[in-house]
Amino acid sequence: MFWYDYYYFILVVPAIIISLIAQVNVKRTYANMAKINNKKRLTGAQAAYNVLQHYGITNVRIEQTHGKLSDHYDPRSNVIRLSPEVYAGTSVASVGIACHEAGHAAQHAQNYVPIKVRNAVLPIANFGSSFGVLLAVFGYILGFGLLVDVGVILFAAVVLFQLITLPIEFNASTRAIKVIEGTEMLYEDEVPKAKKVLFAAAMTYVASLLVSIMSLLRLILRTNNRRR
């Protein structure tokens, strides 16, 4: 049985638990910081606009989207989409998240190199996320080593994609905080609260990467044992 093995329980399960903890933490942190309104009553949409203005970006729209914590920047249509609570919200959490997404827009406007690298890996990573493990499992069952290797390589591309994503996310937050502090969007005692939200969100990416790394390691160890 490929899926029921001790590698899964000693490698993947602990990583999944850490990932779940990170998800709970970001929701709890956001909920707490969303209760604290910034003293200037700046909305998330206004904060994002200020970041765009700081970087001289005039071709990116800011729109409200559906859902909670569904905030993202869409580089294909040059749109920052903010959830209702962030778009119209005046909390320190709303400002931090909105500025983070505007930070992504600034990365694209300035041709930030890690984004180019990630985009190059994206097609393989998309294919690998759908078929990497599947090919490895079939190769494992059929005893076809080459198919196993292809599957492992494809899944490794997923891990690489997530690894490249980390500095992109941290950089967007760094840009956000730099503008927040430089333009005094938030008062000095409010900045750490915005940082706390962004750090908690970044940890979900770290935890997700850990799950993928442990899954890849398990896949490699399991298939190598099969060949012995």
Structure description:
The chain has 228 residues and is mainly alpha-helical. The chain has one domain. It is 73% helix and 5% strand. The protein has seven helices and three strands, in the order ααβββααααα. It has helices at residues 6-33, 44-54, 84-87, 92-109, 113-142, 145-182, 191-227, and strands at 61-64, 72-74, 79-82. The protein has a three-stranded mixed beta sheet. A hairpin with a 4-residue loop joins β2 and β3. α6 (145-182) packs antiparallel against α7. The mean pLDDT is 93.
Rg estimate, integer Å: 20 Å
Shape assignment: elongated
Query: Count the helices. How many?
Result: 7
Secondary-structure class: mainly alpha
The strand line-up of the biggest sheet is 1-3-2
Strand-residue fraction? under 5%
Low-confidence stretches: none
Q: How widely separated are the two ends?
A: 16 Å
Biggest sheet overview = 3 strands, mixed
Mean pLDDT: 93
Q: Give a count of the beta strands, DSSP E runs of length 2 or more.
A: 3
Order of helices and strands: HHEEEHHHHH
Fraction in helix: over 70%
The figure for the number of domains is: 1
